[in-house]
Design a protein that fits this description.
By secondary structure, this protein is an alpha/beta fold. It contains 20 helices and 18 strands.
Length: 542
């Protein structure tokens, strides 16, 4: 058995169904021999984003895998690895490496060394005998603890080398760990004693599949509940205690209840300070439950830290809270306050969400999109910039993993790969990416990948022919040189690639166009709907 065959055999035993990549990396061809489908992208970053989504929308039960050639392929992939690292997403990255005698010779790009700072674990394969051991270490790191990309660089001169012994490999189990019992009891007492506790859920709730426990604790305490962008959909946003998600742009109910809180319980989150997140109110005590002890007190002070899997933490806290309460608290007063704040906020934004003007309001397009799709059978993601801030506060995610939220680092064009990877993992669902005309400039060529690889996503493009966010910071550049202007007929591009493309300019055509686009995806054709929108820069930043 050759080294590359041994690698593929391990992937087969691990249940890998797709390997996303860009040639030449011999793993792709040998995977095809083993009935693992290679998915070939136009550029490396989009492939990493696809692998990223496979892991996300399966709560890490399926690990996304990406491979690429040595040298330029690995160099081009760096950004996608860094994005996954920023989002704590477990993906296996296996670049081909230079031959071992050249691996450390300047200026050759050494992936294991260069990407060590943006991976959870990074190592080169040093011999054929190490295949099962190196991949056992990789998959163990991918399954257990805080997520992140794991990199195994395979030198080109090892690919065809013979593995001397019978391959012995058993997939390593996931290892879960929970918090100290005394700290759990203290947390429960703090939560019960608080007059206005708020629950804040991160994406760790998704990976732990702790959705029922989160809802149970919220209902026990009658606690208003919000999520990070990564945690969006961990709590049903049509629930009376749902505040909506955090981010740069947020609903009024989030800001109001965070500011009124006398205790915030963060579960499965990092509380990372970012320009694209919601600031926690200064001085409010925080209970911080996370998998990574290094995240406690990293960016915000914690009154109490609980280290462990979100499901184990919540199970333990719920048991203690139930022992302290005779019955669940009355949620009606809290729910009424949330409903009042939401109605007040929606009324303020109605001129944009209900606008009949042209060019179209992006808020009207997104409102009609939400009213048209079957949310229970949909996975949607935003892109960086305006699309993220326009959709995330208003879109009510009602089912777990129905919304892929992100934002600690914000690469333009990320959403396309996420939608494509989600569709690979869940071919029965409608998978949507919402992006702007700046984002499509980064990864739009890979809409051809969706067509060629038969990945029928629905792509919603908000085109205002402008870098609208930059208008306020580049007024002279815009006036003198039109530096923020962008052009393009992207619906025509989609048709040229063999997909369905439609440009929409009238309000009356928004919903019919969305229905036509959905019908195209159901027939197996990727669809791109290009909505011509106004240069709207207002977001719900509170």
């Amino acid at each position: 058995m050759k080294t590359v065959e041994a690698i593929v055999e391990v992937l087969k035993r691990e249940g890998v169904e797709f390997i996303v990549g860009y040639p030449v990396n011999h793993i792709l061809e040998f995977a095809a021999h083993a009935d693992i489908r290679p998915v070939i992208v136009r550029q490396e970053r989009i492939g990493l984003h696809m692998a990223d989504a496979i892991s996300r929308v399966t709560s890490g039960e399926k690990i996304g895998v990406f491979v690429m050639q040595h040298g330029p392929g690995a160099e081009n992939a760096y950004g996608g690895v860094a994005q996954a690292y920023g989002e704590s997403v477990p993906i296996l990255v296996m670049p081909m490496g230079y031959a071992r005698h050249l691996a450390h010779v300047d200026p050759n790009f050494n992936s294991a060394r260069a990407m060590a700072q943006v991976t959870k674990r990074s190592e080169p394969l040093v011999s054929p005998e190490e295949v099962p051991h190196a991949l056992r270490r990789a998959f163990s790191a991918l399954r257990s603890g805080r997520g992140g990309p794991v990199l195994l660089e395979v030198p080109v001169d090892l690919m065809m080398a013979e593995v001397p012994e019978t391959l012995e490999y058993t997939p390593p189990p996931r290892v879960r760990y929970g918090p100290d019992a005394a700290d759990v009891a203290k947390a429960a007492r703090m939560l019960v004693a608080a007059g206005n506790p708020v629950l804040y859920a991160g994406q760790g709730v998704h990976y732990a599949k702790a959705w029922p426990q989160l809802q149970r604790l919220a209902e026990l305490l009658a606690a208003p509940t919000t999520t990070s962008l990564g945690g969006k959909s961990a709590f049903p946003e049509d629930h009376p205690l749902a505040l909506g998600s955090c981010g740069l742009a947020i609903p009024l109910a989030v800001r109001r209840h965070l500011d009124q809180a006398d205790l915030i319980f963060g579960i499965g989150c990092s509380f990372t300070r970012t320009n694209f997140g919601t600031t926690m109110p200064a001085g409010t005590p925080l209970i911080h439950a996370t998998l990574d002890p290094m995240h406690i007190n990293k960016d915000v002070p914690a009154a109490l830290g609980l280290v462990g899997d979100a499901a184990l933490v919540l199970d333990a806290v719920i048991a203690e809270v139930e022992a302290l309460l005779d019955s669940p608290r009355d949620a009606e007063p809290v729910a009424a306050g949330i409903a009042t704040a939401r109605a007040e906020w929606l009324a303020e934004w109605a001129p944009l969400t209900d606008s009949d003007e042209t060019p179209l309001s992006p808020y009207r397009v997104l409102r009609d999109l939400g009213a048209t799709v079957d949310k229970a059978n949909t996975i949607i993601t935003h892109d960086a910039g305006s699309p993220r801030d326009q959709i995330s506060p208003f879109w009510q995610a009602t089912a777990p993993l129905s919304y892929i939220g992100w934002g600690k680092t914000t690469q333009l064009g990320y959403g396309l790969g996420l939608a494509m990877g989600a569709k690979l993992a869940h071919p029965d669902k409608l998978c949507i990416n919402v992006w702007g005309d700046a984002a499509i400039g980064f990864t739009g060529m890979d809409f051809e990948t969706a067509v060629r690889e038969r990945i029928p996503i629905l792509s919603i493009l908000l085109n205002n022919f402008s870098m609208a966010i930059e208008l306020n910071v580049m007024p002279v550049s815009t006036e003198k040189y039109r530096s923020t202007d962008i052009s393009g007929d992207y619906a025509a591009m989609a048709r040229a690639f063999g997909g369905y493309g439609e440009r929409v300019t009238e309000v009356s055509e928004i919903i019919p166009a969305i229905r036509r686009g959905i019908a195209q995806t159901e027939s197996g054709t990727p669809a791109l709907l290009e909505f011509i929108t106004c240069k709207e820069t207002r977001v719900s930043r509170l």
